[in-house]
Design a protein that fits this description.
Its EC number is 2.1.-.-. One of its GO terms (biological process) is methylation. Keywords: Methyltransferase, S-adenosyl-L-methionine, Transferase. One of its GO terms (molecular function) is methyltransferase activity. By secondary structure, the chain is an alpha/beta fold. The protein has one domain (10-212): Rossmann fold (3-Layer(aba) Sandwich). Helices cover 31% and strands 23% of the residues. The chain has 6 helices and 7 strands. Strands 3-2-1-4-5-7-6 form a 7-stranded mixed β-sheet, sandwiched between helices. Helix 4 links the parallel strand 2 (84-89) and strand 3. It is globular and about 45 Å long. The structure holds S-adenosylmethionine. S-adenosylmethionine (SAM) is lined by residues 29, 40-41, 68-70, 88-91, 94, 115-117, 134-136, 139-140.
Length: 213
């Protein structure tokens, strides 16, 4: 029998397949950063985040947690706009690059080399008013996604927002990649999915906004 189907298992116990999936994802991401700036690294803060921070009815600056900050463009942007920012990224080289970018910008977001699905292992305690995920969860292996949601839920201030960009299921050859509105509604118990806006990419993408009850 497929060992992945023999649940329930105690939290933290992983099958060999799951361990392999996590290792493969990490290796895949590390290779991108080794070879120079990865293709997603535009250096531009998306208008969806700018609207939340600077637009009509902008959020008051508070505490923000960025999941998968890459080379730090948006953590720096938030810090420049008065937010107290903590960020996590799985790839050490990304973290080093982001720290240099923040120092050059004269801001001090706390940028941690850490796994967004294992936030209890680092000093990233809440509460946070804003969570930002630009294409992180959609690449996380499915068996770690409930832990991601639980980690954010435990750290969310009442009424906190999660702004997420994700590739949809089927955007890549990998059948485990991608995220849908249905999945978020199921995994994020205690949150309301308040908006889903399709992106403009040639493959299915979405901007999701969730609010903690
Ligand atoms: C597609 S990249 C996007 C990076 C950045 N948000 C941007 O748009 O430039 C996804 C990022 O999430 C990070 N990531 C993936 N899985 C992660 C995890 N479990 N915990 C923390 N970071 C993760 C990757 O290392 C990578 O930097």
């Amino acid at each position: 029998m497929d060992e992945a189907r023999t649940s329930p298992r105690p939290e933290g116990v992983r099958t060999r397949t799951e361990i392999e999936q996590e290792r493969a994802q990490r290796d895949y991401l590390e290779a991108f950063y080794r070879e120079g700036p990865p293709p997603w690294d535009t250096g531009v803060t998306p208008p969806e985040l700018v609207a939340l921070v600077e637009g009509d009815g902008a959020l008051p600056a508070g505490r923000a947690l960025e999941l998968g900050f890459g080379t730090g463009t948006n953590a720096v942007y938030l810090a420049r706009h008065g937010w107290d920012v903590v960020g996590v990224d799985l790839v050490e080289r990304a973290v080093e690059t982001a720290r240099v970018k923040a120092a050059e910008a004269g801001v001090t977001p706390r940028l941690l080399h850490a796994d967004a699905t294992r936030l209890d292992e680092v000093d990233a305690s809440g509460p946070f008013d804003l969570f930002f995920d630009l294409s992180c969860l959609c690449g996380i292996p499915p068996h770690r996604r409930d832990a991601y949601a639980a980690g954010l839920t435990r750290r969310a201030a009442p009424g906190a927002l999660l702004l997420m960009f994700g590739y949809g299921p089927g955007a890549f050859d990998d059948p485990t990649a991608g995220v849908s509105a249905e999945e978020l509604s199921t995994r994020f118990s205690g949150w309301e999915l308040v908006d889903t806006t399709p992106g403009t990419n040639p493959v299915p993408t979405f901007w999701f906004t969730l609010r903690r009850d």
